[in-house]
Protein 1
Amino acid sequence: EVQLVESGGGFVQPGGSLRLSCAASGFTFSSYTMNWVRQAPGKGLEWVSSITISSTIIQYADSVKGRFTISRDNSKNSLYLQMNSLRAEDTAVYYCAVYGSGNYFKSWGQGTLVTVSS
Amino acid sequence: DIQMTQSPSTLSASVGDRVTITCRASQTISSWLAWYQQKPGKAPKVLMYKASSLESGVPSRFSGSGSGTEFTLTISSLQPDDFATYYCQQYNSYPGTFGQGTKVEIK
């Protein structure tokens, strides 16, 4: 069974930083492109970033480009999101998600809440 | 970016009803469309991919159709467990974009 477990969320002031982690199990992590998707309170879903299996192709939403950095450690079956220069509009639940046979999100973690507020 | 528009935004229905949700893309996406179900406080769960392929383990009362720019998700007989918010997502091109969601409420 695929399991994705996010951690690292919390409360941070505007301009601050957080690092999210996602621990994967139940599948061959090193064979799949991984993603972060977020959902602001009461709002819809927004893809944030993706990273291919060898980290050769990394993509970001325009809203986070230059501030967020995605990375992975295939030896640890882990995905990361370094978030810098955080803004109030970054407040959201952040989900780790794996692509299916095509770039749809086949499996999701339970999410971790990031709150940016003064 | 491709814009995805769902209708209606909210739908009130009763157990046993046939329910249809529409998703329109701002440009053609072939059949590269997925549907998700999300319950309050939970992660989304994929129901359909490639417009009409049922994800493993998803009940057969769910079906999807369409291609190009117009798509539908149909629940043939609404069950109590189906009251949730549904999202479509195109994955024809980066970035994969979602519709705004359709909340299915109890009538």
Protein 2
Amino acid sequence: IAGITQAPTSQILAAGRRMTLRCTQDMRHNAMYWYRQDLGLGLRLIHYSNTAGTTGKGEVPDGYSVSRANTDDFPLTLASAVPSQTSVYFCATRSDSGANVLTFGAGSRLTVL
Amino acid sequence: EDKVVQSPLSLVVHEGDTVTLNCSYEVTNFRSLLWYKQEKKAPTFLFMLTSSGIEKKSGRLSSILDKKELFSILNITATQTGDSAVYLCARATDSWGKLQFGAGTQVVVTP
């Protein structure tokens, strides 16, 4: 089934550890996004990429980095995890049609202890 | 100041009831307003609204945008238990798909 694959589905991590959340899409969409979702705060944009080779900062980028080496993959890295990064992380893509409609992956639940 | 505000935060209704969800937004750089439904995992797209006063409809769900008063409503008629979800409203501020979401409204439909 075409779409977005996120991994891992769930992870418990010790504070201070490095963690990479993976996101792979097979729709060949140029634009990709990482959001985090926290209770009462909705989804907040962390980083985005309009096309392979480019990235940009969203609303809450601190403590996170991304890379976009090719069209299909958009990993999100936490260099040194902190408890406030406990959240559900969603990767999304946008169709190249121009409409601002995002398609979301199933999410990765991360707990930092 | 919140750029997208949804109300109510949660509500419980009985099957068959009609539900109206509200979303108000900040006008700065506004491009479009989107509604998503989130059950257990990924948010799924419902509607995108760009023009004022034009109702979008899909089955028992409908939505409309008021660009003068800066709000949108999502209506669900004849609710079913499968409508239980968190409904998210988001505004787009550019043509690159960066969305700002509200906190969501949790809807619980009881049998």
